Each structure stands twice: as C-alpha cells, then as structure tokens.
Amino acid sequence: MNNVMEVKFLAKSQNESLARVIAASFAAKLDPTLDELADIKTAVSEAVTNAIIHGYDEDDTKFVYMRCEIKDNTIKVVVEDRGNGIEDVKQAMQPLYTSKPELERSGMGFTVMESFMDYVAVSSIKGEGTKIVMTKKISLPE
Prior knowledge:
With 142 residues, this protein is an alpha+beta fold. The chain is built from 4 helices and 5 strands. The chain has a single domain (3-137), classed as Histidine kinase-like ATPase, C-terminal domain (Heat Shock Protein 90).
C-alpha cells in the first residue's frame, strides 16, 4: 500500500496538535501499535515545534509544510519550514543544545525524534529554512 499526503498550516503553536493528529490518522492505515503511533506523534510534535519556535521565531503568519508517505510498511514524515535555517546542524542535533536558552527550551527535540523514529535527517540552509525527514517501519501483525 503506497500513499502520499501533503498539508501546510500556519506556524501557530496550536497547530502542533493538528499535525500530530494528521500524521497519526495517515499512519493508521498501517495498523500500528499504540506505542508506534505515540512515537510518530511525539516525533512530529517535536519537528513542528522546532519549525514554529526556531524556524520562524513564532511568526504565525508563516507556514509549516508536512508531507507523509507510506511505502510498504514504512511511514516517512517530512516537516519543513522556510524560515531562519540552522547554521550548524551537527551542533543543533547535540543533546541539550538550544539556540534559545532564554525560553528555557530543553534542547532535546532532535534527540527525541531520533529515539522515536528509525531514521532522522536534517538539512538546513541559513536564512532559507530547515527540512526534517523521519521514517518509521511499522511492525507487521503476526
């Protein structure tokens, strides 16, 4: 079963929950366990929150873009912003690193994504935006 879905939404913090529900609903076709579904929702939440807070500095006139693809028993979720970009992706992906310590951010967003998904890749261009690609293979029922 192969399928693709794309959506864009304003970079408003309340839309983070919308993104979670959309990704979970799309993934439901694979019949994931509750744990697998929770993993996807958590990773999407972190990626969207990063786009809103770091990509756009909470400018809710900008858009976050999300694309979900299902191929066989794997879901791929791409979250993208066209905002600030990340100067040093390797540094940004280090646990506890945050570019906004004044907001008391934990700096664990990328670490959370990596722990809940099978694959996470981040590409970014300073001043142009950031793209996060995450995949998760869903266990087939026995």
